[in-house]
Amino acid sequence: MKYLLTHTDRVLDLFLEHLSMTALSLCISLLLAIPIGIAITKYKRLYVPVTGLFGILYTIPSLALFALLIPVTGLGPETAIIGLIAYSQMILVRNVAAAIRGIDPLIIEAAKGMGMSKAQIVFRIEIPLAVPVVVAGIRVAAVSIISIATVAAWINAGGLGTLIFEGLYRTHTDKIVAGTIAIAVLAIGTDLLFRAIERLLSPNMS
Amino acid sequence: MGIVFKRVSKMYPGAKTPAVDGVDLVFGEGEFIVFLGPSGCGKTTLLKMVNRLYEPTEGVIEIDGVDISTIKGEELRRRIGYVIQQNGLFPHMRIEDNIVVVPRLLGWDRDRIDKRVDELLEMVHLDPAIYRKRYPRQLSGGQQQRVGIARAMAADPSILLMDEPFGAIDPITRTSLQDELLRIQKQLKKTILFVTHDVDEALRLADRIVVMQSGRVVQVGTPYEILANPANDFVRQLVGERSLFRRMSLLKNRDVLRLSGAAEAAAAADASDPVGLDDSVSDTFARLVETGKESIPVVDERGHFAGMIGLSHILDSLSRTGSERT
To answer: Does residue A51 sit within a domain?
Structure first.
C-alpha cells in the first residue's frame, strides 16, 4: 500500500495509459464488430466460420498471442492493441449477432411491410433495438480487455501491468499490490459505468 | 379497378405442393374481403403477395389495372396499409413515432405529421394527450392493436391488408375492435383484405368471404351465401351448424323482398314505423313478434316504400336459401 501513496503520480500515469489503451482497443473493436455482427446475421452462411475463427483466436493464451505478434508488429502499444482487438471480437461479434437475432421477427416483418428499405430496417429498427443488449456485451468485453491489457506490459505496451512485472522481477510486493488495486478499480469502475448506461437505455421500453 | 388476381400460384422452394394454386379473384374498390380457411390453406401467402412480401411463382396481381410486379416493392408497400398480429409495433418508439412511420418514409413535413398523429389516435378512440408519448408496452393488447390500425391508415392508403390482426386478443376486446374497424371502413371506404381462421369474425366483418383450402379458392360469396349455400362439405364443416338466428341476422330485408317476391305486394296499408332495406331480418323478425303485426313496411334509403315483410316471407326466404341448394 505504501507504493500507492508514495508514487501516486506514477500509478496515475500508468492508470491513464492503461485506460487509453483499452478504450482505444474497445472503440476500434466496436467499429469492426458492429458491421461484422450485422453481416453474419444477414448472410447466415458466414455465421459459423466467422464466430469459429474468433473463437479459435480467443483460445490462444494472451501471452502467446502477444509473443506471436512481436515479429509482425514489433514491441509496443500497437501490438497490444491489435491483440486486444482480436480478443474482444469474439465477445462483441457474437453479442451483436445475438442482439439482432433476438429481435422479434414480427417487428421486422412489420417494418418491411410498411415499406422500409433494408438499410432503413437496419438503422431505424435493428440497431436501436439491439443497443441495450450490445451494451451488455461491451461491458463484458471492456472488463476482459482491461485484464488482458495487464499482460501487454510484457511487450512494452505500458499500462498498469508495468507495475506488476516490475514487482515480479524485483520481488517488490508493494508494487504488485498497487498495480492490482489500480486495475481492480479500473475494471470495477468500467463495469459500473456500463451497467448505468444499460439502465439508462432500457427503461424506455419496459 | 380494385384488386385482380390472375391465375396466381406460389410454390415455396422445397415444397411438394403449391401454397397457392391458380387463384383467380376480382375485388372491387371499397370491398371488405375476408380470406377464411384453416392454417396452411394459403390465405396468408395470398395476402402477402399483394404487397410483394412474397412473389408469386406464376400469375399476375393487378391493383387498379397496374401489374404490381412493375412497382418497386418498397414504394408499393408504402401505399398499402399493413396490420399484423399485435406485436408488430416497434417497442423502442413512442406511440406517435410508431404511427407516422410511413408518412416519415414518404417525407411529409413536421406540421402535417403532427396533425396526423392526433387525427389517427382520435379515429381509433385513444386520447392523444394520454397516449402520444407512451411506449407500446405501456398499452394493453387491444390498445396496441388500435395503434396498429392507426399506423396502417397513417398515409391514407386505399388498400389495407390485415393478417389475423385480432388473433391474439381476448374475445370481448376483439368484438369492440371489429366494430371499430367496421365503423372506420364505412367512413373511409378502404378496400380491406383480411385474413382469419375465425368463422364468426369472417361472418361479422366481410362483404364477401373467400374460403380457401389447400391453396385453392373453394367458394367466394357474401356471408349469407356461404352460410346458406356452402359449396361443398368442407365449407359446410367449416361454417358448421349455424342457428337460424345467425342466418337471420346476416340476411337483409332487401334479400327477403327479392327472394319471396314480397316487393310486389300491394302498397302499404300501414306505412308507419318502417324498417330499412339494409337492416337485418332478425330485427324485423323481433319487431313482428313484439308488435303482433302481420307485416312490417320496408323503405329504401330515401324513405320510399319498398314492400311489406311478414313472418311467412322470412320463413320462406330462409328455407329457400337454406336447405335447397342453388
So the answer is: yes
For chains A and B, CB pairs below 8 A equal 62
Chain A residues with CB inside 8 Å of B137's CB? 205-206
Structural domain for A16, as ranges:
2-201
* Residue B62 to residue B314: CA distance in whole angstroms: 41
Mean pLDDT estimate for chain A: 90
pLDDT, tens digit (0-9, with 9 covering 90-100), for B106-142: 999 999 999 999 999 998 889 999 999 999 999 998 8
State the nearest Cα–Cα gap between A151 and chain B, in angstroms: 41
Domain count along chain A: 1
Residue A206 counted as domain residue = no
Q: Is A145 a domain residue? A: yes
CB crowding A178-188: b at 16 or more within 10 Å, else e: bbebbbeebbe
Report CB contact under 8 Å: A205, B51. no
- DSSP character for A20? H
- How high is the ipTM of this complex? 0.75
Going along chain B, which residue ranges are E strands? Answer: 3-10, 20-27, 32-36, 58-63, 66-67, 80-83, 159-163, 191-196, 208-213, 216-221, 275-276, 295-299, 305-310
Nearest CA distance, A41 vs chain B (angstrom): 20
* Residue A61 resides in a domain: yes
| CATH code of the domain containing A142 | 1.10.3720.10
Render pLDDT for A12-27 as a digit per residue (tens, 0 to 9): 999 999 999 999 999 9
Residues of B in contact with A106 (CB under 8 A): 84-85, 87-88
Query: What's the pTM?
Result: 0.75
